[in-house]
Amino acid sequence: xxxxxxxxxxxxxxxxxxxxxxxxxxxxxxxxxxxxxxxxxxxxxxxxxxxxxxxxxxxxxxxxxxxxxxxxxxxxxxxxxxxxxxxxxxxxxxxxxxxxxxxxxxxxxxxxxxxxxxxxxxxxxxxxxxxxxxxxxxxxxxxxxxxxxxxxxxxxxxxxxxxxxxxxxxxxxxxxxxxxxxxxxxxxxxxxxxxxxxxxxxxxxxxxxxxxxxxxxxxxxxxxxxxxxxxxxxxxxxxxxxxxxxxxxxxx
Length: 252
Description:
Shape: elongated
Number of domains: 2
Structural class: alpha/beta
Helix content: 10-25%
Number of helices: 7
Strand content: 15-25%
Strand order of the largest sheet: 1-2-3-4-5-6-8-7-10
Largest sheet: 9 strands, mixed
Number of strands: 11
Order of helices and strands: HEEHEEHEHEHHEEEEHE
Distance between the termini: 35 Å
């Protein structure tokens, strides 16, 4: 999309919701906008182009009433400045890669965020770390949904690692105060390829990656797994082996 066309769309007088499913958008497109949209409330960018912190800052300058934001963010530079506090955004869905310190900086500047969905591709946080983020930066958060890739898991202590991680999500903060539950699927066979996925329940993402029958061992924190194992948001299913579907316990 050219800057001219994007500016034409941005200039629409009643523009409230914008969903972009294009793959040739510049990662600096927001800095090229010439006008401010006071009507835009929801923006969803569906592509694989990661946006840095400065793009979110530029976006807020051009859409000060934005309430919903969905995009791919790349926070590789933990020292990148984020000069504005974005008070309007209340709902955000993020595909995140980068440095955790930069992610903290982003959350610090979203004080009114109420609903957060985040897919973390190269880092994971413990329940204690999520609790501290919520207390320090996201005091209004009501709904937290995440998927985190866990790797590597180390040799003979894999299950002990998983138990220790899940115990950080079994505290009063998670179970009693918020009723937020998580599940972990992992490969119990030790080796360099050992990995797992930790995600909130019910599952909140379009893509689900299945771990094959002999390589999958699940654990969870919810009191009734049958009640919470709903995967009705899934649009794409990625199976490691064809037999994965034959033992599937999930309801898609």
